[in-house]
Amino acid sequence: MKITSKDIILDTDERIRMQSEPVQLPLSNEDRELLQAMLDYVRNSQDDEIAEAEGLQTGRWYCSCTSWCFKTNDCGCDSL
Question: How far apart are CA 65 and CA 63, in angstroms?
Fold first, then answer.
């Protein structure tokens, strides 16, 4: 399984604010593969060469100031 930028929903998509389904533990093989694909996407998006070659958007995360931060920490906070 491989995740591309086309698979990522934007924060403006209403689905991002929906409550998630509970995850059964232990993880199924399908869920384990999906989680690994998500992690691979984030790691690859942080590598400039891979990100450019595969057309990946930079992985993002929330910092404690709740602003979107990129790997350059452009929100200006010092929580990262």
Answer: 5
Is pTM, for the whole model, over 0.85?
A: no
- The pLDDT tens digits for 45-79 are 888 899 889 988 775 555 555 444 544 455 555 55
- φ and ψ at residue 69, rounded to 5 degrees: -115, 145
d(CA 60, CA 80) in angstroms, rounded, equals: 12
Alpha-carbon Rg for the chain, nearest whole angstrom, is 15
Cβ-Cβ contacts under 8 Å for 50 (sequence gap 6 or more): 44, 56
Dihedral sign, CA of 69, 72, 77, 80? positive
Residue-level pLDDT at 28: 93
> Rounded to the nearest 5°, which phi and psi values hold at 2?
-135, 130
